[in-house]
């Protein structure tokens, strides 16, 4: 299953390689429109008979099929033919394609840092008034900032994911009398209790993701920074208003290390700590189903990775609880991700597509097809495909939730998609201490 390439590859590809790869690994064209759409919902977007809009992004496989289906009625009612091509190399190639004048009309970009890079290159078209009106109406203001560069609004958010869930087996918890923890300290106590009761490591983890190996570890760190030090420190960290090796960040690394650097805690079902970097993130939680581990830290999108027939529900085969706060009763503080449809061509039909993608109508259409959620406030949580996804929608829509975008996605590429990943790997494998790792990341920050 696709995870929208959440490994965040933004390395610059060499010219010859880009020419050869140019949006390779595509999902291909899928014609939409069943001929029986109720077009009253789409009148506001106008009609553009014979117009075509090309879209590219990192969304692949089943999720790409659902994406194409989500705009089928829009195509039929507006006359705009949408050609979507998905690529695992989108992030590595898109800047070079834009510079060469070969970018798609719309690029579904999963990194605010990459949005900024494209805007700084002078390749992006600012969002239309209709798109901006939608984001002002349907989204929390924090989301608008992620699509804004130097006070110019370029893109509304699309889908969303919540990170920091801990996956578990409800039946195993019930059989052993284990309770869902309400604080980080209780989570550590639970981990120790599971180890004592079962005689095995309670946690399973996997950081392998090809060139992006290490990114699941950065999610751990970001969750702990937000919970231990709060949103202000988190914001200062990702913007480099405090250094990457600030003591508060060191505290987060050490807190995470109590789990993922302990052979007593990980890696259930795979071996010891040394196996984490060789275990693919897609497979890392599966030992829960075989009783070989009990806890796995991963985002809402992991719900699509369980084998077919696995019931994701509070009384099902698998479910998840949100990584708890430091203090019991504290409000929800969550990290997450999302995508931003940026435009490379200035045309009415392009903006009509972007307006639809930023609407509550699109959000409900896409979420109803399953597997994803959105932070769009006009989304009916009942349209979510599982109890967990419904819970995710409600968390994102709760005005008391503190949401922050994935920190590594907000950092410069040389840090968030390079040194941060590499130092997580060095740290987990014992080739760097916490201080050495954070110092190395700090030294890589662009001046």
Can you tag this structure with a few keywords?
447 residues; three-stranded mixed beta sheet; single chain; four-stranded mixed beta sheet; globular; 2 domains; 12 strands; D-Maltodextrin-Binding Protein, domain 2
Number of domains: 2
Task: Give the strand content.
Answer: 5-15%
Largest sheet: 4 strands, mixed
Proportion in helices: 40-55%
* SSE order: HEHHEHEHHHEEEEHHHHHEEEEHHHEHHH
- Unreliable segments of 5+ consecutive residues: 1-33
Distance between the termini: 38 Å
Molecular shape: globular
Mean pLDDT, to the nearest integer, reads 91
CATH superfamily of the largest domain: Periplasmic binding protein-like II
Q: Output the structural class.
A: alpha/beta
Order of strands across the widest beta sheet? 2-1-3-11
Mind explaining what this structure looks like?
With 447 residues, the protein is of the alpha/beta class. It folds into two domains: 15-159 and 339-379, D-Maltodextrin-Binding Protein, domain 2 (3-Layer(aba) Sandwich); 165-335 and 407-444, D-Maltodextrin-Binding Protein, domain 2 (3-Layer(aba) Sandwich). Helix content is 40%, strand content 11%. It is built from 18 helices and twelve strands. Helix 10 (215-229) packs across helix 11 and helix 10 packs across helix 12 (247-260). It starts with 14 loop residues before the first helix and ends with a helix.
Give the topology.
Blueprint: H1 15-21, E1 52-57, H2 61-70, H3 72-78, E2 81-86, H4 90-99, E3 106-109, H5 112-120, H6 129-138, H7 141-146, E4 148-149, E5 152-153, E6 160-162, E7 165-168, H8 170-176, H9 184-198, H10 215-229, H11 231-238, H12 247-260, E8 296-298, E9 319-322, E10 333-338, E11 340-343, H13 348-357, H14 360-368, H15 387-397, E12 402-405, H16 407-410, H17 413-428, H18 434-444
Parallel strand pairs: 1-2, 1-3, 10-12
Antiparallel strand pairs: 3-11, 4-5, 6-10, 7-8, 7-9
Helix pairs in contact: 6-13, 10-11, 10-12, 17-18
